Amino acid sequence: MTGTQYGNGREDEVLAQAAVDALVGQLALAPKPGLPDPRERTARDHSDLRWSAQALFPGLIAMAATARRTGEPGSRLRADLGAIGRSTEHTVALAGGGHRGALWTLGLLVAATALRPGAGPASTTALAGQLAAHRDRSAPRRPSRGSTMSARYGAAGARGEARAGFPHVRRALTALTTARSQGVTEPQARLDALLTVMSTLQDTELLYTAGPMGLRQVQAGARGVLEAGGTSTERGAAALRALDTNLTSHAWAPRGSGALLTGALFLDALMS
């Protein structure tokens, strides 16, 4: 898709479909430690999430079209994206729920891509950061889990990650490129990218459910898999199984890392 010019409704649909495909691809990846995937123990949840992922499509089309018409990453566009995002959240909830973090990430990246078609990942994530820096004055005032954890522990959270230009999305893209160059399978490359994000991300969902010590435990476990050679090695695969067992037993879900991997897969598809 490199260099595609998003100049009409059809191209907005193509862009939105690429985003939904990235989310579905992330959902299909296994074994993801602590996250829903196609394995039997989460089969029902996984089926529901795959279904509700499709409900993002109309909202993402609207975000792309709005960004293209507006033309600049200003406060007006930020407000419009916020309104579309809240409407889309409602639609997704009716379809089964989930994907709030992915919608935030994909919405900003889709809008940034529509604003500057053909730009590389670094420019796109930087532009998304400019968009996120504007305050959405119509957003609900009630504190969320993420904002509460950010205030309590000083974690960047989803908003901080976006305003910084999605550094963990860029890290995931680098991890994908590195793993592929080493000849591993595509699922293994994607799992290594996920673990790269998990190893350093201050996931506010994990802070809420596991606390600071639990978050550090998850980060250390992800680093352990990578230090063992990644998911393509015998030691790395064993470390991944141990990490998954640990997260599952505690009901710890690194959802922020999953959402950011989705953003990386979206940008990766645009470069293909």
UniProtKB/TrEMBL annotation:
Reaction(s) this enzyme catalyzes, per UniProt: 3'-dephospho-CoA + ATP = 2'-(5''-triphospho-alpha-D-ribosyl)-3'-dephospho-CoA + adenine
Q: What organism is this sequence from?
A: Streptomyces massasporeus
Domain of life of the organism in this record?
Answer: Bacteria
EC number(s) in its UniProt entry?
Answer: 2.4.2.52
Q: Which protein is depicted?
A: triphosphoribosyl-dephospho-CoA synthase
Q: Which molecular function term from Gene Ontology is one that the record holds?
A: glycosyltransferase activity
Q: Which UniProt keywords apply?
A: ATP-binding, Glycosyltransferase, Nucleotide-binding, Transferase
